[in-house]
Design a protein that fits this description.
- By secondary structure, the protein is an alpha+beta fold.
- The protein is about 40% helix and about 20% strand.
- It is built from 3 helices and 5 strands.
Length: about 160
């Protein structure tokens, strides 16, 4: 399978790269089929010289660009699409990151649970206070006066007996 990838050239501490087409299994410092351009990341602004027509021809033939080359081609608008992640993680590093994420999720969930418990407790206190205030503000029932049968004042019709 053919791949388009970078081949490092240049002096020590002054990297410069060539875009080459070679077999995926071959060493990029060995033989290659074609030089497709150069990339100098140290220049200001970055110097990229690519043969767009030849790159498209090799892509049509089935050559696969590496992630870094893909991102360069997307930047230069030779290819359409999203950029790809170029960093690869080892399995142990992935496991550590997953554990860390799980711990963070658990911490967030615990914090939410504590906050909800605190809010529920505050609501319960507020309801209890409201209930006690309602009881305090309610007028106390006054003892009713004993109802005595009303005695009519002596009327003129009836005169007391002498």
């Amino acid at each position: 399978m053919l791949s388009i990838r970078l081949r490092r050239v240049g002096k020590r501490n002054a990297p410069m790269y060539r875009l080459i087409v070679c077999e995926k299994t071959k060493d990029p410092l060995g033989d290659y089929l074609e030089n497709l351009g150069t990339y100098n990341p140290r220049a200001n602004p970055v110097d990229i010289q690519l043969k767009a027509d030849r790159i498209k021809a090799w892509l049509d033939k089935g050559a696969q660009p590496s992630e870094t080359v893909w991102n360069l081609l997307v930047d230069q608008r030779i290819l359409e699409g999203d950029k790809r992640k170029t960093m690869r993680l080892s399995t142990t590093r992935k496991e550590k990151l997953n554990l860390k994420r799980e711990e963070e999720k658990k911490a967030v969930e615990d914090a939410k649970a504590k906050e909800e418990a605190r809010m529920a407790e505050e609501r319960a206190k507020a309801q209890a206070e409201a209930a006690t205030e309602a009881l305090d503000s309610r007028p106390e029932p006054q003892p009713e006066a004993a109802v005595l049968p009303e005695t009519a004042p002596p009327s003129a019709e009836e005169k007391p007996a002498e």
